[in-house]
UniProtKB/TrEMBL annotation:
Pfam families: Methyltransf_11, NUDIX. It comes from the Bacteria. Residues 360-395 are annotated as: Disordered. Residues 213-345 form the Nudix hydrolase domain. CDD domains: AdoMet_MTases (cd02440), NUDIX_Hydrolase (cd04683). It comes from Streptantibioticus parmotrematis. The keyword S-adenosyl-L-methionine applies. SUPFAM superfamilies: Nudix, S-adenosyl-L-methionine-dependent methyltransferases. PROSITE patterns: NUDIX, NUDIX_BOX. One of its GO terms (biological process) is methylation. InterPro entries: Methyltransf_11, NUDIX_hydrolase-like_dom_sf, NUDIX_hydrolase_CS, NUDIX_hydrolase_dom, SAM-dependent_MTases_sf. GO terms for molecular function: methyltransferase activity. This is Methyltransferase domain-containing protein. Keywords: Hydrolase, Methyltransferase, S-adenosyl-L-methionine, Transferase.
Length: 395
């Protein structure tokens, strides 16, 4: 996301939400002036590979640079943590094949090794830990990839930002080579003469280290049963899947086992106390979001508890309610809906891997992504394997 002189470094999305309406009024933000737009297009062609490649624009703002890259044939993913900014970027990029995601530029919700270029304009200076962000961004690159960092030190009397020496020091631990090109003298880029330091750093990190051992987040999901009904909560204010229903859920914390985590989450989210003896494993699902890393979810069933379920996290949830298990609503998180469908079908182990472009919301007309895995229900295995039908697909 771009920032000009006087914009404070901030991790608060509300600052950028408020700035979205007037953001494109700055010549180098909206690129409405053909001369400014052409100046950025020429520069971008020098910084990006000539052949079409996978470009990730982090802190994309309203998507002006992402649009230039997409028009040159690159496969673009744009990310911004401000919903109003991301909405404007999506509108601007409509019809180009580019995808716009809501997410934190410092911790992008994307798989490592998936991009040829990570493009970031006027973001690094505002991050609380720029060195950590650079390490994460470098891991997003394929072998031979590059970071394109447009930065500066804005203002003359009380400048803010990153000087070139500061940025060179930050990129040095990545190895490889860094080329810095001054931009302040090119008034066509800014729509007016400027007298402060503005530049681009094209960073080619060293070849990545050997792949790290695979790790996954483990989360837990509560199937709270009241006869034929289950309790669902509507997400709100989280920045992910807001407005959609899902079961009370959360991450396993350090030092917890999955049962302890489920009992804790049940009380924290909906105020019910569940005895350890009253909780049953319903199924285990490995899930992957459309643009995220895999995770493993444990779904637990409980039919006995103490306390009336209430919404104890109004900052994350707009309400809770009971829904018939055999007539679940469509406006659910796809991951949770797939788990409840598998639970109804009696499946115990399930894969649910989205593909890029899939919706995180349940789509009754969309492709099935759930695959039930066969499992051994026959006690001690015999010499002859039991007959079994092949794993099946289900939405």
């Amino acid at each position: 996301m771009t920032a000009d002189s006087g914009d404070p470094p901030t991790a608060d999305a509300s600052f950028w939400d408020a700035a979205a309406d007037a953001f494109d009024d700055e010549p180098d933000h909206g690129l409405r002036d053909p001369a400014v737009r052409d100046a950025w297009a020429r520069r971008l062609r020098r910084w990006l590979p000539e052949a079409p490649c996978a470009v990730l624009d982090l802190g994309c703002g309203t998507g002006s640079l992402a649009l230039l890259a997409a028009r040159d044939g690159h496969r673009v993913v744009a990310v911004d943590r401000s919903a109003p900014m991301a909405a404007r970027a999506a509108a601007k990029l409509a019809g180009t094949g580019a995808r716009v995601l809501l997410g934190d530029a410092a911790r992008p919700p994307l798989a490592e090794g998936a991009f040829d270029v990570v493009l970031v304009r006027h973001v690094l200076w505002a991050l609380p830990d720029p060195a950590a962000a650079l390490r994460r961004w470098a891991r997003l690159l394929r072998r031979g990839g590059r970071l394109v960092l447009v930065e500066g030190r804005w203002g003359e009397s009380d400048p803010v930002g990153l000087a070139t020496d500061d940025l060179a020091a930050l990129t040095a631990p990545l190895g490889g080579r860094t080329h810095i090109e001054q931009l302040g003298h090119d008034s066509a880029l800014w729509g007016r003469p400027v007298h402060d330091e503005r530049y681009v750093a094209v960073v080619h990190p060293s070849a990545p280290a050997p792949p790290r051992r695979h790790t996954e987040i483990v989360d837990v999901h509560l199937i709270l049963r009241r006869g034929d009904e289950v309790l669902l909560a509507r997400r709100s204010g989280t920045g992910y899947a807001d407005g959609l229903l899902n079961a009370p859920s959360g991450h396993v914390e350090d030092g917890e086992d999955v049962r302890e985590a489920m009992i804790r989450e049940a009380y924290e989210e909906v105020g019910v106390v569940i005895d350890p003896a009253a909780i049953r494993v319903a199924l285990v699902m490995q899930h992957k979001a459309p643009d995220g890393a895999p995770r493993t979810g444990w779904f637990f069933e409980a039919r006995d508890w103490r306390g009336e379920p209430v919404n104890r996290e109004p900052d994350k949830c707009s309400g809770v309610g009971w829904h018939r298990l055999d007539a679940l609503p469509d406006d659910m998180v796809a991951y949770c809906r797939a788990g409840l469908d598998a639970y109804r079908a009696g499946d115990r182990f399930v894969l649910h891997w989205h593909r890029p472009g899939d919706s995180i919301a349940h789509d009754p007309e969309g492709p099935g992504r759930a695959v039930a895995l066969p499992h051994n229900d026959h006690g001690i295995p015999s010499a002859e394997p039991p007959s079994a039908e092949p794993a099946g697909d289900r939405t």
